[in-house]
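Collaborator request, handled under Task 6.
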Amino acid sequence: MIKSQLTISFLAAACLTISACGTTESTAPNPDYETYISPGDIFKHLTFKDIHGQPIDLANAPGKKLVIFFATWCSDSQRMFNALNASPLVTDHNLTIVAIGREETSESLAQFAVDYNVSFPLITDEQRNVYSQYANKGVPRLILLDENNRVVNTLIGETENIIEQVKWN
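Structure tokens returned to the collaborator:
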């Protein structure tokens, strides 16, 4: 009986994880995913504190910005971070990258930074206060900003080559 309950619990948790993350391999975004910001809009959140209490000021950061919404448990987010680390974006001095952990704590993000060799600021969004102003569901989400903090593009990172799609022109 206990083994059966454990099996059912495990399967239910796995299904919820897969559906919440959005692990489909389709290149078309899920039609249920809504994005509340469009190219040309000004990104509203320009100041943050990272998981170490350090201020992050996108308003005065030179160059382009890449804002990533993600979840540490999401396989698509994990794949995207691996691809990002293998790309030249992480060493581009004309690019500021910040990653916002949806429903994540400082502790979970600190462990994720170690596990995925994250070299840029991680920001908690435990109650989805920031995320919910830009989207209804789906991670990872990438928002590309120009030098003036205007949205250039938004991407939903459910495909294996999402980092290759990060382009400002």
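The cover message to the collaborator said: "The domain at 2-165 is CATH 3.40.30.10 (Glutaredoxin). Confidence is low (pLDDT under 50) at residues 5-20, 22-28. Please let us know whether this matches your experimental observations."
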